[in-house]
UniProtKB/TrEMBL annotation:
This is Ornithine carbamoyltransferase. It comes from the Bacteria. Keywords: Cytoplasm, Transferase. Reversibly catalyzes the transfer of the carbamoyl group from carbamoyl phosphate (CP) to the N(epsilon) atom of ornithine (ORN) to produce L-citrulline. Coiled coil: none annotated. Residues 3-148 form the Aspartate/ornithine carbamoyltransferase carbamoyl-P binding domain. It is found in: Cytoplasm. Its EC number is 2.1.3.3. Belongs to the aspartate/ornithine carbamoyltransferase superfamily. OTCase family. GO terms for molecular function: amino acid binding; ornithine carbamoyltransferase activity. Signal peptide: none annotated. Pathway: Amino-acid biosynthesis; L-arginine biosynthesis; L-arginine from L-ornithine and carbamoyl phosphate: step 1/3. Carbamoyl phosphate binds at S57, T58, R59, T60, Q84, R108, H135, P136, C137, Q138, C262, L263, R290.
Length: 305
């Protein structure tokens, strides 16, 4: 059966653990190598990944491109607006056609249903590169970064400061699968749906104050409150500001707590410079780990893990 990576549940806890172990081992094995040099075993030699972007990206685009190259394969990167897909060709037809040319398809779109439809009609693995509903590849990198910091996943308290968005939905899903608690502090009107909280399988909850979320937390996470390039939504920003991650809030977490942000960031809004550039921040390894985690996602999709 073709393996699609649309949400973390598609893989499940055992496969996620295997991917994280593989990512750490492969990252260690090629430390210091030029970025474009393939891994010694080049396990996806001859494979091609097509990437479709309906939305802007820096990290997802470049990290997937380098991931397939380091695994010995190649990529084709397309903006949906320059494809017939962007001019009315159906997802079903696009999926069937691309399946004849490439070995896997990654798509970033504002419409989660498009990824589901792509997987329905493609005969090759389909990977979710972010939708309005979830961002599983980002969370694989976050989990890898947490493990690298020396923390085990089961029993962790992860605090989320922000609105109920796609990234939070995948963190809650990860908590349910990997046995850690997710406490989200969200203002009224910006809370996650009940369905997203249910992804946490009883380990996710929503609270009303930032302080309640971070007390005793091991990991503090936030995300941009206003999408990059959008005119600032002043009403939303005003509601969100009490949830800004600053040094005082970090001090309320465990002393060895770490800070994550998937980037891009609006410094001075969701997080202060002192925190994002401070000693507890793991944002640069988190960003790099997109590359390492996605190599393992690709290997899992091809049945190698
Ligand atoms: N975090 C993330 O998905 O970054 P990009 O939007 O740059 O891909």
């Amino acid at each position: 059966m073709t393996r699609h990576f649309i949400d973390l549940t598609d893989a499940g806890p055992d496969a996620i653990a295997a991917m994280l172990n593989d990512a750490m081992a492969r990252k260690t094995a090629r430390a210091g190598w030029p970025k474009g040099k393939p891994d010694a075993d080049a396990p996806l030699a001859g494979h091609t990944l097509a990437m479709i972007f309906e939305k802007n990206s820096t990290r997802t685009r470049v990290s997937f491109d380098m991931a397939i190259r380091q695994l010995g394969g190649t990529s084709i990167v397309m903006d949906a607006g320059s494809m017939q897909l962007g001019r009315g060709e159906s997802i079903a037809d696009t999926a069937r056609v691309l399946s004849g040319y490439v070995d896997a398809i990654m798509i970033r779109t504002d419409d989660h249903q498009k990824v589901i439809d792509m997987a329905k009609y493609a005969s090759v693995p389909v990977i979710n590169g972010l939708t309005d509903a979830s961002h599983p590849c980002q969370i694989m990198a976050d989990l890898l970064t947490i493990l690298e910091s020396g923390k085990a996943l089961p029993g962790l308290k992860v605090a989320w400061l922000g609105d109920g968005n796609n990234v939070l939905a995948s963190i809650m899903e990860a908590g349910g699968l990997m046995q850690f608690d997710v406490v989200a502090a969200c203002p009224q009107g910006y809370q996650p749906s009940d369905a997203d909280v249910a992804r946490g399988r009883g380990r996710a909850r929503v609270v009303g104050t930032a302080r309640e979320a971070v007390e005793g937390a091991d990991i503090i996470v936030t995300d941009t409150w206003i999408s990059m390039g959008q005119a600032h939504a002043e009403t939303k920003l005003k509601a969100m500001m009490p949830f800004q991650v600053d040094e005082a809030l970090m001090a309320a977490a465990k002393p060895d707590a770490r800070f994550l942000h998937c980037l891009p960031a609006h410094r001075g809004e969701e997080v202060t410079d002192a925190v994002i550039d401070g000693p507890q921040s793991l944002i640069w390894p988190e960003a790099e780990n997109r590359l390492h985690a996605q190599k393992s996602v690709l290997r899992w999709c091809f049945g190698q893990l």
